[in-house]
């Protein structure tokens, strides 16, 4: 979908719901963003499209005309895309994926590379940010689908757990814990600890696990708070403290022996990564293909190979 048809979609939704707030919920844009899209159209046609004088929002005569055509234009766009897809037999198009940091940095690059071998014509854009940011991207229509770790509220989107994950302690090989297979989670308060920033799905998960064992971050010796798993691994390798990260994130270091993974004795810290999408999104052929691929991918094989 190009920018112009996106504006038309916003416009039609406002015309149908007669409400900016309802439109912002349906299209998952903020209300100011909805207003901006309408303003942009009003500038193009140099006329007001909505009459906002009464308590209801009504179409002006110009708005009525645009609405009539906009519905047809949007239908034609969709039909053109499908028809062309049929004769070229080529599934092309572009997909924009948002992924939170662990998934975006440690899992998706391999998955996307493998997908491209069989779908060379599909362009894939990958945006990486923490979970909260990816949810914002989805709500504002910047991405087609998101892959996140951590809790997300369900009311505006479809959520599917698709990839299993386990978090473990990481310590450098010269640390006293390095010789152990398991360590009690209660020992965590005795060691300098390195934490991720607020808004990170990994941090949420760690805090939830700790508090279920009666530990608050205020009971811990927080040595550093860092904005990325990469910087946390570096800090742990150099002996500044210990941390807890996804097994996915530590694959390389464990393979080369610069970090040791240790499981908490009480219970494993398990979670799954989720696929998030807008509830009533109309998906392109390309997005459908990629989704099917993601859902069928043998993720375990990646972990066991120790490849990155």
Quick synopsis:
By secondary structure, this protein is an alpha/beta fold.
Q: Helix content range of the residues, please?
A: 40-55%
Helix-strand topology string: HHHEEHEHHEHEEEEHEHEHEEHH
Number of strands: 12
Q: How many H/I helical runs?
A: 12
> End-to-end distance, in Å?
34 Å
Q: Into how many domains do the coordinates divide? A: 3
Structural class: alpha/beta
Please compute the radius of gyration using only Cα atoms.
24 Å
Outline the structure in words:
The chain is built from twelve helices and twelve strands. The chain folds into three domains: about 5-90, Winged helix-like DNA-binding domain superfamily/Winged helix DNA-binding domain (Arc Repressor Mutant, subunit A), CATH 1.10.10; about 95-165 and about 275-305, Periplasmic binding protein-like II (D-Maltodextrin-Binding Protein, domain 2), CATH 3.40.190.10; about 165-270, D-Maltodextrin-Binding Protein, domain 2 (3-Layer(aba) Sandwich). About 45% of the residues lie in helices and about 25% in strands. The chain is of the alpha/beta class and about 300 residues long. Strands 3, 4, 5, 6, 7, 10, 11 and 12 form an eight-stranded mixed β-sheet that branches. Strands 1-2 form a two-stranded antiparallel ribbon. A two-stranded parallel sheet has the order 8-9. It has helices at about 5-15, 20-25, 30-45, 60-90, 100-105, 110-120, 130-140, 200-210, 230-235, 250-255, 285-295, 300-305, and strands at about 50, 60, 95-100, 120-130, 145-150, 155-170, 180-185, 190-195, 220-225, 245, 260-265, 270-280. Helix 1 crosses helix 3 (about 30-45). The two termini are about 35 Å apart. It is elongated, with a radius of gyration of 24 Å.
């Amino acid at each position: 979908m190009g920018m112009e048809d996106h504006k038309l979609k916003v416009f039609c939704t406002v015309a149908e719901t007669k409400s900016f707030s309802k439109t912002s919920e349906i299209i998952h844009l903020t209300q100011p963003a909805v207003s901006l899209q309408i303003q942009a159209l009003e500038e193009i046609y140099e006329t007001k499209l909505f009459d906002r004088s009464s308590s209801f929002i009504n179409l002006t005569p110009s708005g009525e005309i645009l609405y009539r055509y906009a519905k047809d234009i949007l239908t034609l766009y969709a039909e053109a895309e499908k028809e062309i897809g049929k004769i070229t037999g080529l599934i092309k198009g572009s997909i924009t994926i948002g992924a939170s940091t662990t998934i975006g940095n440690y899992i998706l690059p391999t998955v996307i590379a493998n997908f491209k071998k069989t779908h060379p014509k599909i362009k894939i854009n990958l945006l990486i940010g923490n979970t909260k940011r990816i949810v914002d991207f989805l709500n504002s229509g910047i991405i087609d689908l998101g892959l996140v770790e951590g809790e997300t509220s369900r009311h505006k989107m479809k959520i599917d757990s698709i990839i299993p994950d386990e978090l473990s302690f990481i310590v450098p090989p010269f640390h006293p814990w390095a010789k152990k297979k398991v360590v009690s989670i209660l020992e965590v308060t005795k060691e300098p600890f390195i934490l991720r920033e607020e808004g990170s799905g990994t941090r949420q998960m760690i805090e939830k696990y700790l508090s279920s064992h009666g530990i608050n971050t205020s009971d811990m010796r927080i040595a550093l708070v860092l904005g990325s798993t990469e910087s946390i691994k570096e800090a742990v390798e150099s002996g500044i403290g210990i941390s807890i990260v996804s097994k996915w994130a530590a694959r390389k270091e464990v393979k080369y022996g610069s970090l040791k993974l240790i499981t908490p004795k009480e219970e494993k810290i398990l979670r799954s990564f989720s696929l998030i999408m807008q509830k009533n999104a109309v998906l392109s052929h390309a997005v459908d293909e990629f989704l099917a691929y993601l859902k069928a991918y043998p993720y375990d094989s990646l972990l066991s190979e120790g490849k990155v």
